[in-house]
Amino acid sequence: MPSNLLFDLKKSTIYDALAAEKFFVFKYSSLYKKILSIFLFLTFFSSLWFYTLGKYTPIPASEKISSKLFGVFLFCLPLYFLFWILEEFVNYLKNPTPKIKIEEALAFPEKYNLAEFLDFESFKIINLASQLAQRAKRNLNSSILLYCFLKINKSLDSVFQRALLNKEAMLKILDAYLKTFKEEGAGFSLDFQNTILDALKLAKERGKNKITPKELLLALAKNNELFKRILIDAQLKIEDLEILIWWLEELEKEWQEKKEWWNLKNLRKMGSIGKEFAAGYTITLDKFSIDLTREIQKMGLLEIIGHKEEIQQVERILARREACNDPLIVGEAGSGRRSIVLAIARKSVLGESLPEINFKRIVQLNLPSLLSQIENIEEVEATLETIFKEVISAKNVILVIDEFHNYVGGGMRPGTIDISGILTPFITSPSFQLIAITTYEGLHRNIEMHPSLLNFFEKVEVSEVTPQETLKLLQRLTLKLESTYKLLISYQAIKDIIKYCEKYLATTPFPEKALDLLEEVVVHLAQRKEKIVLPKHVAEVVKQKTQIPVGEVETKEREILLNLEKLFHERVIDQEEAIIEISAALRRARAEVTVRKGPIGTFLFLGPTGVGKTETAKALAEIYFGSEKRMIRLDMSEFQNVTDIKRLLGSREEEGLLTTPVRENPFSLVLLDEFEKAHPQILNLFLQVFDEGHLTDGLGRKVDFKNTIIICTSNAGYQLIFKAARENREWTQVKKEVIDYLIENAMFRPELLNRFDAIVLYKPLTQENLLAISELLLKRIQKQLKEREIDFVITEELKSKIVALSYTPEFGARQMQRVIQDKVANVLAEAILRGELKRGIKISIDPNTFQIIKI
Amino acid sequence: MKKMEFLEKIARKLLFPIFLHWYLFEEPKKIIKIWTNFLRFGMEFFSIPLLLKTLFSYWRGYQWKYTGRGLDIPKMLEIKFSNFISRILGAIIRLVIILFGFFFEGLVFILGPIILTFWFAFPIISLIILIYAFKFII
Questions:
Q1: Among partner residues B26, B62, B136, which is closest to A71 by beta-carbon distance?
Q2: Dihedral sign, CA of B39, B40, B42, B48?
Q3: Which residue of A lies nearest to B35 if distances are taken between CA atoms?
Q4: Which residue from A336, A349, A801, B66 puts its CA 20 to 30 A from A486's CA?
Q5: Nearest to residue A621, comparing CAs of A686, A690, A559, A668?
Q6: Is the Cβ pair A394, B93 closer than 8 Å?
Q7: How far apart are CA B126 and CA A86, in angstroms?
Q8: Chain B nearest-CA residue for A92
Q9: pTM score > 0.90 for this model?
């Protein structure tokens, strides 16, 4: 970093503008102009009034007054123009074009005066900071600069407000800091120099030739330690500030563009009157359609965000001069399929698309309305034929059919019609341009049944809008909602909406889910008559919608991860190594030390039956996801044939046993029991899930596994585990042997085993473990009885008896639950029903007879 | 004192040449840009090239086809005549729009130089207006 940065404010061109602005003629030119405009208005109309008065009434002075007033009007007129010219000139002075390029200045910052690259506002801020530093006989540093920025800049107030940054509080912090900070000097400190250079780099990146206050603030956020700390306290990153600033810049650009009404783009918005006269009438079509071109014009030709590639693809297909010029837009409902069509309508109005599309009408056929108005099928078909003929003869219509699958191949159902027969003769004509919209499900279920019709279409698959694009859409909606509900939506809340939607509302695609959630949050707040939308409000609404304790999960997650072992042991007895391994793997995964694409965690639990594998999974579901209900359990022994893939992933006929529950509840634990018994090709499917974190279901929909924990259990190699337990061997060596055994016997492929976050070995249970488990289970009954004020004493004899009755080496403790139910719970239930157990009673169970003993 | 300093500064930096450059080159460039925008907009708004290209096309696509059997000359002539009328009607209406378009373009074409002249002659015009104004006042 150069220590001798050339930065001389007084030698910069913009200094003239500052000088001119302070000169009273320039300084008040805008005010003079306003006063004169009022004068012009008053003198003109009063002169006219006196003139009329003189004409029709015998007041002698009227005409004289009128003439004098007209004289004043004429006097003011050139003055008005003069001040208007001066105002424009000062604006021109404020925006001088630097004589050298930013790239050059950045390469030699000690050679060129970098103050030349300041815009008027930034110049004023730095000029004030420089004066302040000079007065205090100090180096000009970034803190003084930030202080002056906050003091005089008003243009970025909205950014501070939305980011929940209190300018006054920041000023106080800076004031206190500057009072204590003593650094003698008369130059520029290093952080100041870095700020200027960073601001210059940012301006270059944004394609500007000047540093505006926006770049200055961002550079300060990068270089000023105090500002960095303030941002961290407000839970903001520099990137967030960047997003907020560029958002404001785009809005300003939009306003500026609108203000310059003489621009060709603005003039084009008026449309045209001649084009219609070159096209044919579409009387029947107009009756049963929605004109999307008019719709987008009514929306003020708003720019459509996202789907750039898809829009280009649709344009390319439509522009072909051959029969196959009809795009079939395929995507999930809510993924913005219709917005692609609106984008094309917008480009067509502005003449920004291809010649085959420009200035054409994009019209959506309203088939539901047609079917509800005409009941007779033959009449419907005749009407449709007329409509299609009109589309061809009009020569300026691009037809859109939404939910195309409802009208193709579905047979005749009430409210629908199969139009494939009527459509085919028309679709072969290159002058018939049709955009069909459908879903993946509709495509596979109905449209693919008509391959001849499908041949005329080219598929355009709509990918989900990215979170960044969704953020832009949310920003647009934010402004609308703020003006409707008169409240402020904080940036942190907008950020959380995207975060929660991505994590907890995976069924619906972006952007719809995020836009809906924002509206819901705002309505929720309006009901409570609060004025600022905060992250906690978003968490509240998401909690109501999903029943997931959002917010709490976020804050509790760290606590949970740190105490995983303890929490596990409240439910799972022993298996110390296994629990340590699971906890460590989960912590590794959640600390995001490495970039992860797959699920939260993937584990393979190996061990004999009844040793606590499923119990661990249940415990994990409860600890991590808040409830055992958040567990999707599949017995993989039911998927031993390759044909079972269909059952797992779903098909046209049935829902997927794995994919559908995960799509509906993406924040879940997936337990795959007896994993080794599944068909090898099914196991291969999981390679992608473990690696990429997603799977494509039978209908072509992407199913996200990123928020799941996947636990696979297997008792393969349990003989080895039993043997090792008997021989009391080193456990890490046993694990290696078991894994080798699994690979040698072709139960699992090495690449699959490598993809697990941890392979966890469960030991057979010892006598002590079993006693502890029986105690754990009996304590659950004890707790229930305590609520009825019945004191149930658990004796050692009872525990031993239950262990003796329930334990078999093959099934571990699996029988224990049933034995306790039969021998203890049933006896107690009957006694309660018979009224033998009164409140306050103290009881125990005889281990031999299993009769109640009153103590 | 400060004001004097600034006046000196303005004089030293010679704002007047900058003003002249802006007044005689920069702003006229902007006016010419706006003028060409309006000329282009007029062509697009009245769709003059498109209407000229389709001048004799059927009016709103209305055309009749002979669907009868055999040689029904009166019917064929009637259809020919109907189609001819459709084309003539189309041409008349398109021509009206084209004429309106040309009128608008002509107006803009004349207005541009007028505004530009007014801009350059503003000092003289304002002087004349001021003289007139004094005459009215006195």
A1: B136
A2: positive
A3: A262
A4: A336
A5: A668
A6: no
A7: 15
A8: B22
A9: no
State whether residue A74 sits within 8 Å of chain B by CB. Answer: yes
The rounded distance, in Å, linking the Cα atoms of B85 and B82 is 5
Please write the tens of the pLDDT for every residue from A530-551: 999 999 999 899 888 877 777 6
ipTM of this complex: 0.86
CB-CB under 8 Å, B37 with A264: yes
Q: Pick the residue from chain A with its C-alpha nearest to B5.
A: A19
Domain count within chain B: 1
Residue where the block lists tokens 């300003």: A252
Nearest to B45 among A88, A263, A272 (CB): A272
Taking an 8 Å cut-off on Cβ atoms, the answer to whether A274 and B45 are in contact is yes
User: Measuring CA to CA, which residue among A328, A316, A279 is closest to residue A427?
Assistant: A328
Per-position DSSP letters for B2-51, written without gaps between them: HHHHHHHHHHHHTHHHHHHHIIIIIHHHHHHHHHHHHHHHHHHHTTHHHH
Rounded-to-integer distance, Cα B45 and Cα A341, Å? 24
C-alpha A605/C-alpha A674 separation (Å) is 10
Q: Which residues pair with A604 in a beta bridge?
A: A712, A759
Taking CB atoms and an 8 Å cutoff, what residues of chain B touch A68?
Answer: 136-137
Residue B81 CB partners (closer than 8 Å, separation 6+): none
Is A275's CB within 8 Å of B57's CB?
Answer: no
- Residue recorded with tokens 């074409």: B109
Beta strands in A293-432 (DSSP E): 326-330, 361-365, 397-401
Closest among A249, A136, A145 to A196, alpha carbons compared: A145
pLDDT tens per residue, range A637-656: 999 999 999 999 988 778 89
- The DSSP code for A302 is P
> In the predicted model, is pLDDT for residue B27 greater than 50?
yes
Asked if A272 and B27 come within 8 Å (Cβ–Cβ), the reply is no
Domain span including residue B18: 2-137
User: Residue A815 and residue A610: Cα distance in Å, rounded?
Assistant: 8
Average pLDDT of chain A? 88
**% of chain B exceeding 90 in pLDDT:** 64
Q: How far apart are CA A115 and CA A105, in angstroms?
A: 11
Place of tokens 């306290």: A233
